[in-house]
Amino acid sequence: MLSRTADNLYWIARYMERAETIARLLEVGARISLLPSTQGYKTEWDSLLKASGNSGGYVAKYGPPNQHNIESYLFFDRDNSNSVASCLTLARENARIVRTALTTQVWDALNTAFQELKLLEAQPRATLELSRLTDWVMKHTAMVRGAIDATLLRNDGYNFLNIGYYLERGDSTARLMDVKYYVLLPRAGYVGTGQDNDQWSMLLRALSANRAFHWAYGGEITPAKIAHFLILNPQCPRSIWTCVAGMNNHMARLATLYGRDTEAQVATTALLAELQDQSTDQIFEEGLHEFLSRYIRQVANLGVVIHNSYLSGDMH
Amino acid sequence: MTTYFNEMFQDGNVRSPYARLEGWTRDMPADLRLAKQAEAEALFRRIGITFAVYGEGGDPDRLIPFDMFPRVFTANEWAKLERGIKQRARALNAFLVDVYGRGEIVRAGRIPAGLVYQNAAYERAVAGFVPPKGVYSHIVGIDIVRTGPTDFYVLEDNCRTPSGVSYMLESREMMMRMFPDLFRENRIEPVDNYHEILRRTLASVAPAKCDRDPTIVILTPGQFNSAYYEHSFLADLMGVELVEGQDLFVDGEYVYMRTTEGPKRVDVIYRRIDDAYIDPLCFRADSMLGIPGLMDVYRSGGVSICSAPGAGVADDKAVYTYVPEMIRFYLGEEPILNNVPTWKCAGADDLGYVLSNLGELVVKEVHGSGGYGMLVGPKSTKLQIEQFRALILANPGNYIAQPTLALSTTPTFVDQGIAPRHVDLRPYCLVGERIELVPGGLTRVALTEGSLVVNSSQGGGVKDTWVLAE
User: Fold this and answer.
1) I want to staple B401 with a disulfide (CB 3.0 to 4.6 A). Which of A48, A228, B343, B443 is the partner?
2) CA atoms in the 13 A half-sphere facing the CB of B98
3) Where does B208-302 sit in CATH, by number?
4) Span A67-105, pLDDT tens digits
């Protein structure tokens, strides 16, 4: 496959996953605004903005956070390269370039999302419920994902799409946790208070893992269980372990297909081995924030190595 | 008052190829028609068949208007067109081999040397080189208009990279999807094997050094080109890579593409970019699109380029006037399809005639295309005519003139119902080891009442084109 094509496929996946992450953040925000909180909900919007990875751009444009502006910025704003609108447009733009590497169904799903986005943009904002917007994004990202799984050949392009999905997803799980890492730290005075529980379930909700968590663990919610679920549990579809294992799996398939190993594959296998040796105790010992920051750096580095190994067109 | 040949109605009667369509339209309620039209538009948009117009800005995802009323030819009519088109494609290729070789037609005094050798499209870089199978133009798009029951004229030849074939294929898909009954009632020749013939044609001109099943690619200028959809559509149908210049490089005797598995050799390049942009070492040094060294590989038989560099000299509008002469010279036959009588403003007599008859003539730039830079005398204001007169006087050699042809009309769906609109036809003749033509082509229709300009860049639309089986 052309290196440029692989690059486009990888970015289609990253942008679609990013759009979904932003939509999920907005959903959490909408839920918080319905809670009878007297204080603190402003800081929640603030942390959502941080988790979206572009709070600097927001402050420069709008100043202090407020719900309406944050919604516009994260959903519609084309100045924000991470907004839902930007991500869906870029995903479709990448798809347009590689039409030949996609099935009609996958293109159709991507293009329909883009066409409907244009209709949404043409409507007055006041008529658009936030929950309707986030549902709409979830529906379309799921349709694209479904079309990929149901119709695409299991060839190298399929592997590059999945590598993009897993890399972006693992990164967003780590970022979301890092924004809220302090609520998971064991602090004697707060344990068992209502506020902590709200914070924890918000984190799970932001990862669409609220109910799943209870199925997987049962009993009391504790920070250690949450950290285990989101970092090390192979059952959780968004855990860091799942994402690294997913990348590793698809790179192994590429190695079989191409009959050669790459620097990217070696790096991913090493990262997975490292995670397999970890326990939540060790993570808390290192410091949750330190662990997550380190992982985010490793993923960024992996992105560079993937580019060099497969997407640049030069051989490594 | 000019009378126009209506392809469906003649003297109040329905002509035979359209017989079954009369009932179809009579029985179709207006609301069904509107619903179908909306369905077609939604489908085209979903598939992503859009069309960008150079220099106009606006919506980059503009749709090309699609008219649901088909245009129909009988088997007999088509048989004559087919013979004429193939004859022309053969002569044009013979001409190209000749003028890059010994130049017999020039030596014989049948075409002026200056017109060929000083032509901007004449590529000195390929003089003396004969491409595989002696084919320069592998896809010849010949624009044809009709003026009467048996009167067809060739308006121009496109020997480089004629576009529009995706509209021919998609219009047919659309009609079969929306009106399957029509295809049961009428026996319509299929066009959907075009891509297989195209692939076979390209494979048949693999370069001398290729000793295996040739790897074919389509070379596109990129996603911002107005025909990008078509490039990716054809690549997809043929199952070949769609590459940009940056994906290809020359190493030693061959051309390679950059893939995730490493370099892969390329044997045949169906290029959809102009000569000037394919190799900055040979042509334009400022081109970002080209592949440095490509022409060296080409000339040493390491890769085939379709159409071959230099093919453009055969479709120049001034060279066009000599195509009937080429047919007689190379094939020893009489032309089956006529040229439109043409006055060359370069000559003093012709110039005088053109300037005194501007109001009745169509004047075109020799190198123009896409319906730009032309004057349609009868449809122009006095001011427009005077402005054009000044342009011609400033550079007479740049213009040719033709009578305003009474382009045939076919029924077309318009806001008020059904009305006659002017049409032309572009069939796509494929030339490789064999010369082949799918039964059909692209019918372009001028949607504006009375307009004779069918170019999509000027508000023209497309129709499905039917050739009935015997």
Assistant:
1) B343
2) 22
3) 3.40.50.11290
4) 888 899 999 999 999 999 999 999 999 998 888 789 889
ipTM for this model: 0.71
Residues A120 and A253 in one domain: no
Tell me which of A212-221, B3-12, B37-46, B383-392 is least confident: A212-221
Task: List, as ranges, residues 138-157 from A with C-beta within 8 Å of B.
Answer: 156
- Say yes or no: A76 and A174 in one domain: no
Residue A184: predicted pLDDT: 64
Counted domains in chain A: 2
Backbone angles phi, psi at B180, to 5 degrees: -55, -30
Is domain B341-403 in CATH 3.30.1490.270, yes or no?
yes
Alpha carbons B309 and A72: distance in angstroms, whole number: 52
The beta-carbon neighbor of B223 closest among A96, A107, A156 is A96
Whole-number pLDDT of residue B347: 85
Q: Are A136 and A160 contained in the same domain?
A: no
User: Are A116 and A196 part of one and the same domain?
Assistant: no
Beta bridge partners of B157: B142
- The answer for residues whose C-beta is within 8 angstroms of residue A83's C-beta and 6 or more apart is A22, A73, A74, A75, A76, A77
Q: What is the dihedral of CA A142, A145, A150, A152, to 10 degrees?
A: 160
Structural domain boundaries enclosing A290: 154-316
Candidates A108, A156, A160; nearest CB to B46: A108
Yes or no, beta carbons of A3 and B241 under 8 Å apart = no
Minimal C-alpha gap between A258 and chain B (Å): 6
A316 reaches B (C-beta below 8 A) = no
Name every chain B residue with its beta carbon within 8 A of the beta carbon of A3: 247, 258-260
